[in-house]
Amino acid sequence: MAEPERPRTEQRMRPAPLLFEPAEATGDPEHFFDLESMEDPRELLDRATELTHAFRAATDRSIEFQAIAAAQLADPRRFDRLTLASIAERAEWTEDYARKMVEFGRELLRGGIEKP
Questions:
Q1: Does residue 32 surpass a pLDDT of 50?
Q2: What CA–CA distance (Å, rounded) separates 25 from 19?
Q3: Is the Cα torsion angle 50, 55, 56, 57 positive or negative in sign?
Q4: Residues 102, 17: Cα–Cα separation, whole Å
Q5: Hey, which of 1, 4, 63, 110 has its CA 20 to 30 A from 15?
Q6: pLDDT at 4 over 50
Q7: Is the pTM of this model over 0.70?
Q8: Among candidates 4, 11, 8, which has minimal Cα distance to 50?
Q9: CA dihedral 31, 33, 39, 40 (to 10 degrees)
Q10: How far is 31 from 23, CA to CA, in rounded Å?
Q11: Element containing residue 56 per DSSP (H, E)
């Protein structure tokens, strides 16, 4: 059975791996990681919970990588650096959000926050 969500101060559990679905399964809108074929509701709840935790962890990790990339692209030492407006446009963010992501990425790169 899946464990309840832990506070951020505790070490995170490694989430269930996200496996790519076969091409023929992705064409079926009812197909989602084979959950629709599970008949035991306990098993369904456990697997769906595992997937939820895995997607959340993947989202957090992706955001950290976005922030690092934004900080690198905005680095004034780069001859080809991008403006906040360009980064925002590229990532489909507002300019204000791009600024926050660049700051967050700089913190990650300085080691102020656990690196991905």
A1: yes
A2: 12
A3: positive
A4: 29
A5: 110
A6: no
A7: no
A8: 4
A9: -160
A10: 11
A11: helix 41-74
